[in-house]
Amino acid sequence: MKQDLKGILQTHFQFHSFKEGQEEVISSVLNGRHTVAVLPTGTGKSLCYQLPAYIMTGTVVIISPLLSLMQDQVEQIRMRGEKRVVALNSFLERDEKLRILNQLDHFRFIFISPEMLQMESVQKRLNRMKIALFVVDEAHCISQWGYDFRPDYMKLGIIRERLGNPLTLALTATATRAVVEDIAQALKLKEWSEYISSVDRPNIALMAEELQDSEEKDRRLVELVSLLQGPGIIYFSSKKKAEESALLLRSQGVKGVMAYHGGMDQENRILIQQQFIHGQIDIICATSAFGMGINKENVRYVIHYHMPLQLESYLQEIGRAGRDGEKSVAILLYAAGDEALLHFLIESELPSDLQIDRMVQCLKEKTYTALWKEEESLVALAGLSENQWRIMSDFLRNLERANVKIEEALLNFKQFIKDRNDYK
Ligand code: ADP
Ligand code: MG
Q1: Which of 52, 282, 326, 417 is least surrounded by Cβ atoms within 10 Å, i.e. has the fewest?
Q2: Which residues line ligand 1 (CB under 6 A)?
Q3: Distance CA 416, CA 202 (A)
Q4: CA distance 63 to 230
Q5: pLDDT digits (tens, 9 = 90+) for 45-70
Q6: Burial of 163 (0-12, 13-18, 19+ CB in 10 A)
Q7: What confidence score (pLDDT) does residue 148 get?
C-alpha cells in the first residue's frame, strides 16, 4: 500500500515525497476512518483528500467556506490536468448550475459552498451518487470557539447524516483541543481518528517591537516595508487603518500595495487576492478577512500593525509566511494602549438593549433547536450584525450546554450586556 501511495503521488501530483502528516492522514482515510486532521497552514492539506480520490471509487465532495478559496483549489486541480472538477456556488448562472447538477456524478471532485449544500435539489442529487469522501476544509469554521465561525457550517452535521453518513475528513490548521472536539461533535462523527501535528514553523522568525505611538508605528512600518524583500502581508484591526496605510506606503514610493478588507465587494476582493497570488501585487494591507487558505508559497513577511483579537488568529496569520520553507519573518508592532483598541472592538460589537429586546420577543416561546434552525431569519429580524450574533450565540450556546432555559438565558444575556455598558 505504501508503495502505491508514493506511486500515485508521483504520477498524479509530481511530488517525490509526502510532507509531514500527509501519509498518516491519507492512510487513516483509506482505512475507512472518519478523520480530523490538524496540519499547519501550507503543509498540503489539500493533498489529503485529493490523493485518495484516485484510489477510492466515487466522488470527493469538498465543503469550503470561501468562494475565492474554492476557485483557487479548482484552478490548481485543473492545472494538474484533472478535468473532472467543478465548483458549485452562488457565482454560477442558473443555467450553468442546472447543467452541472444534471451531470454531477461525472465529476471526481465537487467543491461546494455550505449554503449551496443546504439546497434540497443539491442534496437529492448527491444522495443518488456515491460519495467516496466528504471533506470539510477549514473545519474550524464549525466551532463557536473558533474566530472564523460560520453559522452555515453548523448545519453540516445534519446534512452529513442526510447524505447517509459518508466517510468524512475534516481539515484545519487550528489546533486547540476544544476546536477538534467541537468539529467532531458538530459533524456528528461517532468515532473518529485524529492527526494533530505540531504548530511549530521553524523557518519563521517571530519578533515584536514596542513603539511610542501610532505615528512612530507608521514610520517604522514604512521603514520595514522598504527593508524587507518579497511579498508581504500587513494586518490591521481596522478597515480604515488598512486603507490609510496602503495610501501612506504608496505615497512613500512603495510599489504594488493594495488594501483588502471585508468592506470591499466580493469581485474586487477576489481580484486583489488573485493578483497577490500571481505576483502582480506585492503587499497587502489587510484586515483579518484576508488570507484564509491562500495558497501563496513565497510570502516573506507578515507584519501585525495591530495585534489580533486571539492568539489563534495570530498563529494562523503568521502561518501564511514562508510556506515554501524559506526564511521568513513575522513582526508585531506594539504601542502602549493597543489592547484598549481590541477591547473597544469587542465592546462596540455588543448588541444594543433594543436589539436584545427584539430578540427576546422573537425567541420567547422557542426551543434552542428552533433557534439554531431559524437563526438567519431571527438575526435579520433583530437586525444583528454577524459579530453581534456571534457574541450572542456563543453566550446562548454556553447556557444551553448548562441546561439553562432559553427565557432565562436571554435575561442573563441582557444582564451581561447591561453590566458591560455600566462598566464602560
Ligand atoms: P494547506 O491547505 O495545508 O495550507 P495546500 O494544500 O494549499 O496547504 O498546499 C500548500 C502547497 O504545498 C501547495 O502548493 C501544494 O502543491 C504543496 N504540496 C502539497 N503536498 C506536497 C508534497 N508532498 N510535496 C511538495 N509540495 C506539496
Ligand atoms: Mg487549505
Answers
A1: 326
A2: 15, 18-19, 22, 39, 41-47, 295, 297, 323
A3: 42
A4: 32
A5: 999 999 999 999 999 999 998 887 88
A6: middle
A7: 67
Specify the ligand 1 atom closest to the Cα of 173: 3
Q: At CA 121, angle to CA 117 and CA 126, rounded to 5?
A: 65
What is the DSSP secondary structure assignment for residue 37, as one 8-state letter? E
Query: Which pTM does this prediction carry?
Result: 0.66
Ligand 1 centroid – CA 335 distance (Å): 36
* pLDDT tens string 328-355: 999 999 998 787 777 666 666 677 778 8
Q: CA-CA-CA-CA torsion for 182, 183, 185, 191, nearest 10 degrees?
A: -130
What cell numbers appear for 177 in the block? Answer: 483541543
| Cβ count near 95 (within 10 Å) | 8
Residue 57, class by beta-carbon neighbours within 10 Å (0-12 exposed, 13-18 middle, 19+ buried)? exposed
ipTM: 0.99
Report the separation in Å between the CA atom of 17 and the middle of ligand 1, taken as the mean of its atom positions: 11
Atom of ligand 1 nearest to the CA of 15: 24
List the one residue out of 373, 34, 38, 368 whose CA is nearest residue 179: 38
